[in-house]
Amino acid sequence: MGCSPSVLLDHIQGESVTANQEKQITKKSAIPYLKKEPTRSVVHRKSSLPLTPEDEPFDAYRTPSESKFGLLLPPNRSPLKLLMVFLQPDAVSDTLSRAADKLGFDVTTSNSYEGTLEEFVSKLHDLIVIDARCPQRILDCDTLCRSIRNTRGSQHTAAVALVKKSAFDKDDVTVTTLLDSGFNRCIVETTNIIHYVNELVQLKQSDIRPLAQYATNQSLYVALEKCNDIVLVTDDSFRLQYANRASERFLGYRYEETLGKTLQEQLIYDPIQLNSMSSSLMRAREWQGPITLRRKGQDAITFTCKATPIISAGRSPTHFAIVIDIHGLSETPSTFDKPRGSVQSLRRTSLDVRSVGSDYLRRTSLAKLSALPLEAPITKVITLLTQAQEQTTPSVVGILDKVIDLLQNSELYSPHLKDDLRLRCDEPVTSDLITALLMQQPQLHTSASSRRSSNDSTTLRSAHRTVSKIRVPTQIKELLETSLTWEFDIFRLEDLTNKKPLTHLGMNLFLHFDVPQTLNCKEKTLFNWLTVIEMNYHMDNSYHNSTHAADVMQATAGFLEKDRLKAIMDPLDEATSLLAACAHDIDHPGKSSAFLSNCDNPLAILYNDSTVLENHHAALTFKLTLGDDRINIFKNLDRETYKIARHNVIDMILATEMTKHFEHLAKFVNVFCPKSTRSDECENSIPITLPENITLVKRMMIKCADVSNPTRPLRLCVEWARRIAEEYFAQTDEEKLRGLPVVMPMFDRITCSIPKSQIGFVDYIVHDMFEAWDAFIDMPELVSYMRQNYIRWKEFDEQGHTTAADIRKLQNNLIMAPMFPSKSTTKRNE
């Protein structure tokens, strides 16, 4: 159904001309060639214009390569019928007639207004040529063309105006006026028969044939109208462009009531379902699942739905075709409107999300979390329990409420000593022994003074902002003024600092977040610490170097600036998050943990092949920090605060291990918007300030920062992709050279497609995580850049730009533009 909205509308409404109206068109003045009478009524369609290229149907990209256009063949009309309208024969008309005969056209001539209409109505010619050279008072070709266009079936005819040479010799409104009247194009008078032969050949290929195909496509609409299932076609913003008769029959809305309105405001009962559908369709993927639609004057009803993206032009989906199976009906959600017991807050009801108030936008984005395709077993259990609540007694409802609350905890298997055991245990030694044996980590008791409320966040951040005493070159200082923007040019900073960006960016961000004050340490100590940390990154790594660490730190700082995180993060959380981001890949060897295990590296032996690199990064961070008093940024903290800071840093660094990616994401989605919870009560039902939930947020934050490359502007995204591919290529080369198992066989520098690797990475890792993160912190530029880059990677792959050399050439020729104008340039422009 790869067609534009206007085509859909014209097909449906183009049959509205009645027989009486046709009769009115043909009964014109008996005196031809006179001026147009003021009282003459000419019936106009919704649009009297012919089909333009924008209105012609396009075929959808069914595969990465284009499908062939025109699977339904038009009728074989041979010969093609040509109607020539000339006031009187002359050399030009004779030349045109001979050219048409040469090409095998069936030529009919007319020299009057009424005769032209009668001829056209009787034969419905494929092509009509009208002489527009004569004065308007003699032959009003504008009115004649409009009358023809108002004749039923004329939308399948190409109309051409023959004009004088002077019409093209100067900037004149003649051509524009003729096109506005309904002509497809204009041709110039000539007595050269070859010229007219070429003109007619072009008309046949570029106008007559597409119009015939357009007429044939009417059969598709007839089929849709007869289809028992509901068929809807929308544009890329879900604005309805077409609905078949089955939709009117089952939903009760007339076509005119739904046309031009979005599905959400007219039909969709639950906005969360539309979010889920949109997430797949905007990536040019089919979506299938249940959908609940409103029925006019009746209860809503749930159908089985399949939605398909259509790419009519360009690379992004332009339309969505939605087919709703009326045979797969589910239970109507009318029972949702009946509150019972205490589970009302846990059931999804018919809610107008716009009525929530000032928090509408954030709560709507939170609803995206429950629409993600990711679903852990614990989520399924909660969903089943919620369904059981609908069919049980009020006494059981309260018990199930408590069960669901417990299951929504992020640490289901972290044991806690029962309260009754504590009471029965007279001997404190026994209680301490059992607790110590069961706990995996030391219990952290966060003092009240170490946390702050959301009301204090702004005050603490800006009260006594530290002014750096370290001199920074002017160019670096100007660049660092943009350090909190998502478009920050980290590679520019890498160049300016001679591949040592971490120290400069780190000090800038530490001072912004008042880290010296939080850790009670001197600025010089922080600077020394950053210097040592950066020295322990391997400069020869193409990806895992200090530039990557600085990039992750910058992303973390950008996230911390969001209101949602400011409300829950205390100063120590912010400081340790930046420290973890800074050191999360320290001493990375440029090889994966699997490589280290395969070659019996000492680190793999030390950590028993388990989370090798991440354990090493965390351990080395504290070994360096605590081993030298000049860089010990924790030396002035009290013991408990230090233990909290140490726990935070270690936990966040270990969270960057990709083997537990889906576990972290499933916990985050399950806790912060479980599928069983109403979107409008999501915020109130989540104890977000609990320490374990803040830990979940910090884990997700550093994970997103660590793999944020696909969500950066294209120039940065492509450079990061090239660098990580080069590092993987080097590992594959060494594995082959040493006879080790090849961890990533596809990353062969000769055969690997870098665009395909990025497309797969976004599909399976990045997309769902950043949809969830954006829904939580409300940062839409993340998803926007991700989708734009995803489309560009597909384009690069289709164009054959696959190798590292190809990507380098693309960078040089296409996308290596400066991210920010320099200050001097800005001042000159001002």
UniProtKB/TrEMBL annotation:
Extent of the signal sequence? none
Binding residues for AMP: 544-548, 585, 706, 758
Which GO-annotated molecular functions does the record name? 3',5'-cyclic-AMP phosphodiesterase activity; metal ion binding
The prosthetic group or cofactor this protein requires is: a divalent metal cation
- InterPro entries noted in UniProt: HD/PDEase_dom, PAS, PAS-like_dom_sf, PDE8-like_REC_N, PDEase, PDEase_catalytic_dom, PDEase_catalytic_dom_sf
The entry's Zn(2+) 1-binding residues are: 548, 584-585, 706
Residues engaged in binding Zn(2+) 2: 585
Q: What is its EC number?
A: 3.1.4.53
Family that this chain belongs to: Belongs to the cyclic nucleotide phosphodiesterase family. PDE8 subfamily.
Q: In its UniProt entry, what is this protein called?
A: 3',5'-cyclic-AMP phosphodiesterase
What is the scientific name of the source organism?
Aquatica leii
